[in-house]
Specification:
This protein has about 120 residues and is mainly α. The chain contains 5 helices and 2 strands. A two-stranded antiparallel sheet has the order 1-2. A hairpin with a 2-residue loop joins strand 1 and strand 2. Helix 1 packs across helix 5 and helix 2 packs across helix 4.
Length: about 120
C-alpha cells in the first residue's frame, strides 16, 4: 500500500517536472528528444544562426577570411554557450534514469499482477 502511494507520488512529480527530455522508441531503440523554448521564430533563427557562426569560428579560429565575416564572435559564442548550459539537465541525470526505470518496471508488473489476481 505504501509502495503504491510512493509510486503515484513519483509519477505525479515526473509528469509535472520531466518535460525536458521526451523518451522515444523507434527501430534504433530507446532515445530521448530534447526540446527548449524560444519566444519566436525569429529568436529560433538567431539561435541556429549563432550556432553555425560559432562552429565556423571554432573551425577557422576567427583568424581567416571567414571569421572576419562574423560580426561580434564573442557575443555569438556567449549566446550559444548560455543556451547549451540551459538545456543540460546536469542535476537530474542519474536520479531521473533510475526513477524512470522503477516506474517502467512497476508499469510492466502491474498488468501481470492484475492477471494473476484475476486468474487466481
Amino acid at each position: 500500500m505504501e509502495n503504491d502511494r510512493l509510486l503515484r507520488a513519483l509519477e505525479t512529480i515526473r509528469e509535472r517536472n520531466l518535460t525536458f527530455l521526451a523518451p522515444k522508441q523507434d527501430k534504433n531503440g530507446k532515445h530521448y528528444e530534447v526540446t527548449f523554448a524560444v519566444d519566436s521564430h525569429l529568436r529560433l533563427m538567431f539561435l541556429v544562426t549563432n550556432l553555425i557562426k560559432v562552429c565556423i569560428c571554432a573551425l577557422d579560429r576567427a583568424e581567416g577570411p571567414i571569421g572576419r565575416d562574423i560580426p561580434d564572435p564573442v557575443h555569438n559564442v556567449q549566446e550559444v554557450l548560455l543556451h547549451a548550459l540551459s538545456i543540460i539537465p546536469i542535476e537530474e541525470h542519474r536520479f531521473v534514469d533510475e526513477v524512470l526505470e522503477l516506474l517502467v518496471t512497476e508499469r510492466e508488473e502491474k498488468p501481470k499482477e492484475a492477471k494473476t489476481e484475476k486468474n487466481g
